[in-house]
Design brief:
Layout lengths: L1 H6 L10 H25 L9 H11 L2 H36 L4 H28 L2
């Protein structure tokens, strides 16, 4: 799981184990939380971004107990990668939203936040399913 969490953000191959799948989903959830913070700082000051520590706690609460320590160890490395790689990804996604909103920043913020929120919900559902069936 640790390897998947650190190595895989968005462009992984097929996970090889259930632990890899859990790591990929947990990493994606944390990435979505960071993306909301990036949007808030960069374009959407009115956006209500989740508290990052709460995102971490949400993940840990859903992880099978045997993966929690591994997640804590990998989280620092993952967050370091997110700080360098996420801005480019978030910029590209926001640029697409801005074009589709005809240059309306407020609408692009709303659409971006909605897309990321839906991704977070989907990932948390997946995490719950995978965690109940490790």
């Amino acid at each position: 799981m640790l390897t998947t969490l650190i190595v895989c953000l968005a462009n992984c191959g097929t996970p090889t184990t259930a632990a890899d799948e859990i790591g990929k989903v947990a990493g994606g959830y944390l990435e979505a939380c960071h993306e909301l913070h990036y949007l808030k700082r960069s374009y959407c000051p009115e956006l209500q971004a989740p508290v990052l520590l709460q995102c971490v706690n949400d993940i840990e609460r859903e992880l099978p107990h045997k993966f929690r320590a591994e997640f804590r160890k990998g989280r620092a490395v993952l967050e370091q990668r997110l700080s360098s790689e996420l801005p480019v990804q978030a910029e590209n996604r926001f640029a697409l939203q801005l074009r589709s909103a005809g240059g309306d920043t407020a609408l692009a913020c709303f659409n971006s936040a909605d897309e990321v929120a839906q991704r977070r919900i989907r990932l948390m559902r997946q995490l719950k399913i995978f965690s109940n069936n490790p």
